[in-house]
Design a protein that fits this description.
Strand order of the largest sheet: 3-2-1-4-7
Low-confidence stretches: 1-5
CATH architecture of the largest domain: 2-Layer Sandwich
Distance between the termini: 37 Å
Strand content: 15-25%
Radius of gyration: 20 Å
Number of domains: 2
Mean pLDDT: 92
Number of helices: 11
Number of strands: 12
Bound molecules: zinc ion
Largest sheet: 5 strands, mixed
CATH class of the largest domain: Alpha Beta
CATH topology of the largest domain: Nucleotidyltransferase, domain 5
Shape: globular
CATH superfamily of the largest domain: ATPase, nucleotide binding domain
Order of helices and strands: EEEHEEEHEHEEEHHHHHEHHEH
């Protein structure tokens, strides 16, 4: 269903591992301006300060209509109802931070927060595949892997807002140690960092591999690995085969469990069309027929990789009526 078109502005703030992207977004889904600011996350204090600095710097430069609200996608454990950034390993948040209250006092605007993958899923529900389907999963494969689940039009959160940790499903018995402390997790095989780690570890055994060049030039990333696999490079093919099987098993399990109508991929690793095709084929070949019969598509997100978090954070501010949400400020 098309959302009502209007020109009210909200801010979407995507707190990522290396940068904070702030965007001014219309409630009809157009990013009017976006800018990246550095993330300093050596300590809890620096993470919070860099978030504050990014928003205030953007607002100083922004010369369009004043925003009605600020939405922020954060990494880690987020208490979205009470506005608390509870914990994050990546952002060094070790003590709960009342981030909504802090920012509402500073900017005198309503502030809404959520986990970054939930934000991306809300954006997909609002502006993307959600316009034609009420049952889908959004699987983000970047440095880490997580998914958002939409069932009957609503985001599934679980008891503590942690539903969708697909990256920590075990897909290889006797697999590698994962950052979560367990073994054989999907993320430890197909996450962007894991793919590069596999290539670097195996390169000495493949001196003829074409991946030696991007490695020496500092350009070894998932896309280079998949393109080399597509060209028949033996090392790259071995990594891609393992990654296809691991992600394929994860997605098949998810599909059989949740019976989605669409499976939507986002994240830097899924930008490679060839790899997406390999995974798509695995899923079509291995999913139970009565689940498969209802899958209308395995596709990619409507946003480009860099903007999905900003869109999603902005969507936190938009109500069911298509207008900026209102709430009493915590001042
Ligand atoms: Zn894990």
């Amino acid at each position: 269903m098309q959302q009502p078109i209007n020109h009210r502005i909200v801010l979407g703030v995507d707190f990522g591992a290396t940068k904070i992207q702030v965007g001014a977004i219309t409630c009809s889904g157009k990013i009017l301006a976006a800018k990246k600011f550095p993330t300093c996350r050596n300590s809890q204090k620096e993470s919070v300060a860099s978030l504050q600095n990014a928003i205030s710097s953007f607002l100083k430069e922004w010369d369009g209509p004043p925003p009605d609200a600020i939405g922020i996608g954060l990494v880690g454990d987020i208490d979205w109802i009470n506005g608390i950034w509870v914990y994050s390993m990546n952002a060094k948040i070790s003590e709960p931070v009342p981030i909504v209250s802090i920012l509402e006092k500073q900017f005198s605007l309503p502030v809404f927060i959520d986990n970054d993958v939930n934000c991306a899923t809300i954006a997909e529900n609002y502006f993307g595949i959600g316009r034609i389907s009420k049952h889908f999963v959004l699987i983000n494969v970047g440095t880490g892997i997580a998914c958002g689940i939409v069932d009957n039009g609503r985001l599934v959160r679980g008891v503590s807002n942690s539903a969708g940790e697909l990256g920590h499903n075990c897909v290889e018995t006797n697999g590698d140690l994962c950052s979560c402390g367990y073994f054989g997790c999907l993320e430890s095989i197909v996450g962007g960092a894991a793919l590069i780690r596999s290539a670097v570890t195996m390169l000495p055994s493949y001196p003829e591999s074409s991946l030696n060049t991007p490695y020496e030039e500092g350009n070894l990333h998932s896309n280079a690995i998949f393109e080399a696999a597509r060209s028949g490079d033996q090392l790259a093919m071995a990594i891609a085969r393992r990654a296809t099987k691991a992600l394929g098993i994860g997605v098949v399990n998810l599909a059989n469990l949740l019976n989605p109508e669409y499976i939507v991929f986002a994240g830097s690793v899924m930008r490679n069309e060839w790899f997406l095709d390999q995974v798509r084929k695995f899923v079509y070949d291995n999913t139970m027929v009565m689940t498969l019969n209802y899958i209308e598509g395995i596709t990619t997100s409507f946003t480009n990789v860099g903007d999905v978090g900003t869109y999603g954070a902005g969507c936190l501010c938009i109500g069911a009526d298509g207008l900026p949400r209102k709430k009493a400020l915590s001042v």
